[in-house]
Amino acid sequence: MKSKLVLLLLFLLSVSSNAQETLTLEDCYALATKNYPLSKQTGLLQQKSSYEIEALSKGKLPKIDVNAQATYQSEVIGFPTTLPGVEPLNKDQYRATLDVNQLIYNGGTIDANAKLKEAQTKIQQQQIEVSLYQLKSKINQYYFSILLLQEKSNLLLSKNELLLSKVKEVKSAVKFGAVLPASEQVLEAEIIKINQQLTEIKFEKIKLLNNLSELTFTKIDSETILLQPDFNSINTTRTRPEIAFYDLQNQQLEFSKNVISKSNLPKINAFGQAGYGNPGLNMLDNSFQTFYVVGLKANWNVFDWGKNKTDLKALDISKEIVTSEKETFELNNKMQLEELDYEIKKMEQLLLSDSEIIIIREKIIKSSDAQMKNGVITSSEYLTELTNLFEAKNILKTHEVQLSLAKSSYEIIKGK
Predict the structure, then answer these.
(1) 205 in a domain, yes or no?
(2) CATH of the domain at 198
(3) What distance in Å separates the CA atoms of residue 57 and residue 54, rounded to the nearest whole number?
(4) Cβ(322)–Cβ(246) below 8 Å
(5) What DSSP state is assigned to residue 178?
(6) Which of 60, 85, 172, 329 is deepest in the core (most CB within 10 A)?
(7) Distance between CA atoms of 260 and 263, rounded to whole angstroms?
(8) Taking the chain (416 residues) in consecutive chunks of 10 residues, what is each chunk's mean pLDDT?
(9) Contact 174/183 with Cβ under 8 angstroms?
């Protein structure tokens, strides 16, 4: 019983190791988005923004400075006559102070700058999304090129298998003198030609798989089977990242206008100073003293020569520029979608006629097969019709892949 169990496990392991891996177009998109080095910047930008906003918010906290100085003056204040109890000031003076400044009101400038910083970070992150989204078009180029090679390889293998069976039939006929030996050689030459084509496809596929591996930062085995995308399932359409990028730019400009509008509002600070020095606040007392000063300070730039108005006008023009860029992008998008829509309709029509051609070619090859067996036509004539059949099938597969590529490109341009 134990030996049977071991054999079963070995069989299952053998099957699993020989099973070919499959890869979908969505897998490639996900791998590129996850592994592409640029994607790491999204989190880094968020961390950077958090630190910068935290630094801005510290402007609301008290500012504490410790100051110390020692000076020697060539002259000091003196009196024309000597006064009782009043000593002349020393030319060497000393002072140490603790200064505290607390912002009370600045028109919300700190909060406005924090919101502006958040908007700038979102723009940078969205720019990364735009760059990652553009990778999809590059992935499509490699994916569908590999898919087409894969389909051509399958057709060649199918043709090769059919020819091998025909060679056996012709060998038997040659043995009994029903056909000439040259008939067998014609088929064998075609088999060699097919093997050459398979070799070309193999190396071309390896090259394209390496390119796809570099884009997705994942090792893709040469035996991996790429699956045809399913466009019948319902895909949730979302906005292109470029549209969100333009909208975020306009939001940032609005936050910039808000910062400018607050820059000329009055600013009020409370301050306090405690110190120890010689002399203190009483200049007539020529000794070391402690002292303190507290108060409020207001600052209001009531006239800036129209600088803020000029800056606001410049930002309004910037908004118009962003809006025009967005409109241009949407126009180009619309034109690309229309072109792809025509391409999709064209391929769908071609596929209908491809199927009709294949049906006719299959009837012809069936008749040619019977004629070759009866010696009515040569193997060369049969091979011509067989090649025509597989060429028709090859065209059908090419159109199927081109249709899938057009549909995938349509989804990318529309927003997926």
Answers:
(1) yes
(2) 1.20.1600.10
(3) 5
(4) yes
(5) S
(6) 329
(7) 5
(8) 41 44 92 90 93 92 94 80 70 92 91 95 95 94 96 95 86 62 81 95 95 92 90 67 95 95 91 91 84 92 87 95 96 95 96 95 92 82 92 96 95 88
(9) yes
Task: Tell me how far the alpha carbon of residue 119 is from its chain's centroid.
Answer: 19
Into how many domains does the chain fold? 1
Q: What is the pTM of this model?
A: 0.82
- State residue 416's pLDDT score: 73
In this structure, is residue 180 part of a structural domain? yes
Q: Is 231 inside a domain boundary?
A: yes
267-278 sheet: strands from edge to edge: 63-72, 92-105, 267-278, 289-299
Phi–psi pair at 64, nearest 5 degrees: -115, 125
3-state DSSP call for residue 21? coil
pLDDT of residue 100: 95
Residues 160 and 153: their CA atoms lie apart, in Å, by 10
The reply to whether 181 falls in a domain is yes
Q: Report CA dihedral (249, 253, 256, 262) to the nearest 10 degrees.
A: -140
Instruction: Yes or no: say if 383 and 208 are a contact pair by the CB < 8 Å rule.
Output: no
Q: Is 288 helix (H, G, I), strand (E, B) or coil?
A: coil
Expressed as residue numbers, the domain containing 254 is 20-61+106-265+300-322
Location of structure tokens 């958040």: 118
